[in-house]
Specification:
Order of helices and strands: EEEEEHEHEHEHEEEEHEHH
Strand order of the largest sheet: 11-10-9-12-8-1-6-7-13
Strand content: 25-35%
Number of helices: 7
CATH class of the largest domain: Alpha Beta
Largest sheet: 9 strands, mixed
Oligomer: single chain
Length: 266
């Protein structure tokens, strides 16, 4: 079995809100010193792939595939450090600022170039835009079925047994590959820590870089997005304060409760 895990490098979502800035002209975040990390749900997908490989045996191969800038090799190194077999970065100036459909087209081309792929795993959504669209669009581009919000996968004969999370429980799905699966978080799929030996070995492993030409993509075909970002800004939060009056602490507490009720806060 060949499993491909889609991994995205994103701005660290844990940076303090007061340091977050936006370049409204470029319509991009502008936090140059902030760390870039692996999108958390992609980490969950990676852990699901590792557990599935452990369950199926040595015949299973995992490839980490990322679309981004050269710096995205850092998160691919992290994937290699937790014993992913291979890593590929899709990088080209033509791939910058793509919408979800454009990203899905490029990722699907990368998956086709990898050859015989049985299963594609992706996080349910990226930790930056949180659109939750690329996984299902990759499935559409490949002509494969897609199962969303999966937390666990195990072998089931010639098929796979998937646990799909619902609002009021879960659903068990039997899936025959090839397919695309989007993964949500669960106690069972928190990404493991890499061993020191594996981290050292990962630094020596090659990461293939494929551009538009290598994928057989005409850059001009990516220049007409289906969605355009008209503006990107940090909304201003109005602030004001009210002083609660009262002769005693009890009077102030009653006045506070009355005011909160007026504001429909309680």
């Amino acid at each position: 079995m060949h499993i491909v895990v889609l991994i995205k490098q994103v701005l660290d979502p844990e940076i303090p809100a007061r340091t977050f800035r936006v370049n409204r002209e470029l319509k991009t975040p502008d936090v140059p010193r902030a760390a870039q990390v692996m999108s958390i749900f992609d980490g969950n997908a990676l852990e699901v792939a590792l557990k599935l490989r452990e369950a199926t045996g040595s015949g299973t191969k995992i490839t980490a595939l990322s679309l981004g800038e050269k710096s995205a090799e850092e998160v691919l190194r992290k994937a290699l450090a937790v014993t992913v077999d291979e890593a590929v970065l899709l990088v080209d100036p033509a791939f910058a600022n793509l919408d979800s459909i454009g990203k899905a087209r490029v990722l699907a081309a990368g998956i086709r170039k990898l050859g015989a792929v049985d299963l594609v795993l992706a996080g349910r959504q990226a930790a930056d835009w949180e659109a939750g669209q690329v996984g299902s669009m990759v499935a559409e581009a490949l002509g494969w079925p897609c199962v969303s919000f999966v937390s666990r996968i195990s072998p089931d004969g010639d098929a796979l047994r998937l646990r799909r999370e619902l609002e009021d429980g879960y659903q068990i799905v039997r899936l025959v590959p090839p397919a695309v699966v989007t993964v949500t978080n669960d106690d069972s799929n928190v990404l493991r820590f890499a061993k020191v030996r594996d981290v050292m070995m990962s630094s020596r492993k090659p990461i293939a870089n494929w551009n538009a030409a290598a994928l057989g993509i005409d850059p001009a075909s990516l220049s007409d997005p289906a969605v355009n970002v008209l503006d990107l800004f940090v909304p201003e939060q109005p602030k004001h304060a009210e002083m609660i009056e009262g002769e005693t602490a009890r009077d102030k507490a009653i006045a506070l409760a009355r005011r909160l009720r007026e504001l429909n806060a309680i």
